[in-house]
Amino acid sequence: MDIEIKNLKKYFGTKMILDIEELKFKKNIITGIIGPNGAGKSTLINILAGLDKEYQGSITYNKEKFNDSMYLDITLVFQKPYLLNRKVYEDVAYPLKIRKLKKSVVKEKTNEILKELGIYHLRDQKSTQLSGGEAQKVSLARAVIIEPELILLDEPTSSIDEDSISTLERVLKEYNKEYNTTIIIITHDIEQAYRLCDEIIFLKNGRVEDKDGLF
Amino acid sequence: MKKNLLIVALLIISLITGCSSVQNAQDTSVGDNGSIILATTTSTRDSGLLDYILPDFEEKTGIEVKVVAVGTGAALQKGRDGDADVLLVHAKPSEEQFVEEGHGLKRYDVMYNDFVIVGPKEDSANIHAEAANDVVKGFQTIAESESTFVSRGDDSGTHKKEKSIWENAGIQPEGSWYLSSGSGMGDTLKIADEKQAYTMTDRATYLNLKDKLNLDILVEKDEMLFNQYGVIPVNPDKNENINNGGAQEFIDWLLSEDIQKMIGEYGKDKFGMPLFTPNYNK
Amino acid sequence: MDYILQGLKEGILLLFKLDKELYRIIFLSVAVSSTATALSSFLAIPIGVYLGIKRFRLKGLFSRILYTFMSIPSVVVGLLVAISLSRRGPLGSLQLLYTPTAMIIAQTILVFPLALGLVYNLSKNRGKEIEKIGLTLGARRFDVIILIVRELKIYLFINVITVFSRAISEVGAVMIVGGNIKGHTRVITTSIAMFNSMGSYSRAIALGLVLLLISFLINSIIYSYNKED
Fold first, then answer.
1. Most CB within 10 Å of its CB: which of A36, B58, B152, C204?
2. Over residues B54-65, mean pLDDT
3. B189: three-class secondary structure by DSSP
4. Euclidean distance between CA atoms B267 and B142, whole angstroms
5. Is B150 helix (H, G, I), strand (E, B) or coil?
6. Please, where are the H alpha helices in chain C?
7. What is the arithmetic mean of pLDDT over B146-151?
8. What angle, rounded to 10 degrees, do the helices at B92-100 and B72-81 form?
9. Residue C138: helix, strand or coil by DSSP?
10. Residue B105 DSSP code
11. Nearest to A51 among C130, C135, C140 (CB)
């Protein structure tokens, strides 16, 4: 999914949060966004996910403006996983169920993805019984299960264990390769950015400071 | 105009001083004439009689009358509990028993009014044609046709009277046609109106609400329907808060020639007939 | 003093003797109030959740008006319903005044703002976050509302219980539209008022105890859920 931002301005009251003249996210690659706290990274990613519509300027996705049907193809993984108040299996299956898929398909795909992320054994657990890493894996499983065109991630690995981090990175790479999923990830971890990303954007004080190609 | 203002001002002042002296009374001595509690039936309040005569008493004596309008049963109970200073009720046998048991000092006849049976204009049970002056027969007709009848059902004087008539008619009223409202006369009339049912009411309350009701008088002027009111001062030995002096003053005033006359005139201009007939016998 | 103890003793005795009239009153109270609670909640939950997460003009003013109506006096509701249902009123032909149906209508109207206000406030505070999650997972408007209801079901349940306790303890509305007719529209609160004015204290006390017991049960339920959270 190609994303083009033009003259994006975002204010909180009178304080400017974002001021981006022009920015393109290429399709089918993994783009990393880095930058200090308060740079406007989370705000940007919330806007891209269609969760925040109060801004000036234009953003297009494959040349189209955002519309409600894009929620079906764009997903966002938050820094602090919010799991639904139900069992892990039901949580991961939720996006498929609201898309009214057949029961057998839902079951098959859900089990497949749980295995892929190594959390099949947790399928009957409640969200409150999971560790931070496990919870983030569940929230990633829930995000990728619909094979979205665009996955946005807001510092998904900032507070989880090494093993979980490598699982997450592996799965993201797989999806990027297998399904040509466009991925945009905010990270604090420069090394992770180098490991994972094809392009990196540096954001500071709401502006794009540097836009590198391949490192 | 100025004169009226003066009277109102005097009245207010006398009320205020009356009130404040009650508070003093509770602090210091017993027997102050500041205020009295009159436990009475809803019919004296709902008919408007008390509003008509009480200002005269308060003006003359400076005693404030706190009216608690409940059923006769509850009023007598308040007397027994020592929660009232004087009773104005209408259930002669119960009243006499009350005095006999030492709860009250003496019972005086004050006035009487009468009960009537009212019901929907169509009168589906046809009691007006069958029993215009025969309440027992009227009740029998209602019961036989199982026409809806709303009873006060609150142990009031009216309710007691109604029960005695059913007894006379040899009927134990029960079933879905017999509704017990557990409310005062005004509310019971409203319920009867809504349900287009029969009920027994004192004439005064009925006449007072007549314009707002779709009910007609169907049975009246049977001797059994006469209703004697009595006034009783509560025995002050019950507790030290009972204001016997004020109660006695109230009774003297109520039975005085002026007030008896006033009672006999109440309602004449509005309804064309008096609602109560005074009958105190010296 | 004696008559209070006497009343308490007789009241408890009446409850244990399974006095038919008392239990009929208790049953009608519970039936009327739970029906009113169910009806008002059924409407208030989806509307409240929706309005809570929706942005609209004058939302602040709307909140203040709604919170005001949450504590609308029951006698005012009773009066309005009685006027409408009276034979002379606009809905007089339905002949509903002084029936349990009228009591349910009055209580439903009485507690609807309370139910709506509680749900709205909950959704306003907690719903946005859940809406975001839902949207990122591809939920449509209707799915989002269902998701919020499911996620907040414990809190919504506590709200419903709160609404019920307001309904069962109010006296003004049911007294006016029900008329306190024996065996038809007599509920706990109107009976207590009546038994008191009849001087029949033991029955009044017995029903008062039942009302306290119901209130205690309700608070125990809320307490146990709050502790769990």
1. B152
2. 92
3. helix
4. 30
5. strand
6. 2-16, 20-53, 59-69, 74-85, 100-136, 141-151, 153-169, 172-178, 188-197, 201-228
7. 96
8. 10
9. coil
10. S
11. C135
SS (H, E, C) C185-213: CCCHHHHHHHHHHCCCHHHHHHHHHHHHH
The number of residues making up chain C comes to 229
The size of the A-C interface in CB pairs under 8 A is 45
H or E stretch including B57? helix B49-61
Closest to C111 (Cα-Cα) out of C40, C214, C174? C40
Spatial distance between the Cα atoms of B257 and A111, rounded to a whole number of angstroms: 100
Task: Write down the pLDDT at residue C200.
Answer: 79
Write down the domain spans for chain C. Answer: 2-228
CB B64 within 8 A of CB B15: yes
pLDDT > 90 fraction of chain B, expressed in percent and rounded: 60
C3 lies within 8 A of chain B by CB: yes
C133 touches chain A (CB under 8 A): yes
pLDDT beyond 80 at B33: no
* DSSP letters spanning B154-181: SS-HHHHHHHHHHHHTT----STTEEE-
Fold adopted by C2-228: MetI-like fold (1.10.3720)
C-alpha dist (Å) from residue B85 to B38, B68, C201: 6, 11, 21
Task: Inform me whether the C-beta atom of residue C138 falls under 8 Å from chain A C-beta atoms.
Answer: yes
Closest residue in C to A153 (Cα) is C136
Chain C residue with minimum CA distance to A142: C137
pLDDT tier at B157 (50, 70, 90 boundaries)?
confident
CA pair distance B26, B241, nearest whole angstrom: 8
Q: Are B46 and B275 in contact (CB under 8 A)?
A: no
* Interval A93-107: pLDDT, tens: 999 999 999 999 999
Q: Are C132 and C139 in contact (CB under 8 A)?
A: no
- Residue B48, SS3? coil
Element (H, E) at A199: strand A199-204
Return phi, psi of residue C131, to 5°: -60, -45
Q: Is the Cβ of B81 closer than 8 Å to some Cβ of chain C? A: yes
Nearest to B194 among C3, C86, C197 (CB): C86
Q: Do C136 and A94 touch (CB under 8 A)?
A: no
Q: What is the DSSP string of A20-31?
A: EEEEEE-TTSEE
Residue C212 CA to residue C137 CA, distance in Å, equals 46
